[in-house]
């Protein structure tokens, strides 16, 4: 029902008004998300990303809260706020050849810019449907569906 959907554009105001007037309806989108996350297993892309991380002996950092990475058997790191800059030495960034981003639309935390500042030769490899603004001419965009791209990338490594 179109009336029951919350518009992304006005989500803050609409969500508050809906939470006050109909709390059950306000919680439904979150319940749907939580149920899908806990009832479903990881996707092909989650599994491929885990195998890729294991082959490359690297970490997965995520902002996802669905815990589907963990269902593949890997412990993903969920940095918050300034955690990265407080816990990673800038000199360590020089040792990272590339950072792969998956479905990231912007560098809102500034981590990728910080990486490039400390490692100008480092590469960003973005897997996305559209070109994110943080991808430079020296970086790579793998444009398409991550469910197709990640398994292929994992096979190549």
SS field, number of helical segments: 7
User: In this structure, how is the largest beta sheet organized?
Assistant: 3 strands, parallel
Mean pLDDT equals 86
How many individual β-strands? 3
The SS-based structural class is mainly alpha
What best-fitting shape do the alpha-carbon axes yield? globular
End-to-end separation in angstroms reads 45 Å
Written overview of the protein:
The protein is mainly alpha-helical. It has two domains: 2-39, no CATH class; 44-156, TPP-binding domain (Rossmann fold), CATH 3.40.50.1220. It is 44% helix and 10% strand. It contains seven helices and three strands. A three-stranded parallel sheet has the order 1-2-3, with helices on one face. Strand 1, helix 6 and strand 2 form a beta-alpha-beta unit. Helix 1 crosses helix 2 and helix 3 (44-56) packs parallel to helix 7. The longest helix is centred in the N-terminal third of the chain and has 17 residues, at 23-39. The model has no long low-confidence stretch (mean pLDDT 86).
């Amino acid at each position: 029902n179109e009336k029951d959907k919350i518009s992304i554009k006005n989500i803050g105001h609409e969500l508050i008004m809906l939470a006050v007037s109909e709390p059950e309806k306000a919680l439904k989108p979150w319940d749907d998300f939580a149920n899908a996350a806990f009832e479903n297993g990881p996707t092909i892309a989650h599994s491929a990303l885990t195998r890729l991380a294991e082959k490359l002996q690297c970490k997965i950092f995520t902002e996802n809260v669905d815990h589907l990475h963990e269902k593949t058997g890997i412990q993903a790191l969920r940095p918050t706020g300034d955690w990265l800059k407080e816990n990673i030495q800038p000199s360590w960034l020089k040792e990272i050849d590339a950072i792969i981003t998956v479905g990231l639309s912007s560098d809102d935390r500034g981590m990728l810019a910080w990486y490039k500042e400390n490692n100008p030769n480092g590469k960003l490899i973005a897997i996305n449907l559209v070109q994110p603004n943080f991808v430079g001419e020296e970086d790579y965009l793998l444009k398409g569906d991550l469910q197709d791209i990640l398994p292929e990338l994992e096979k190549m490594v």
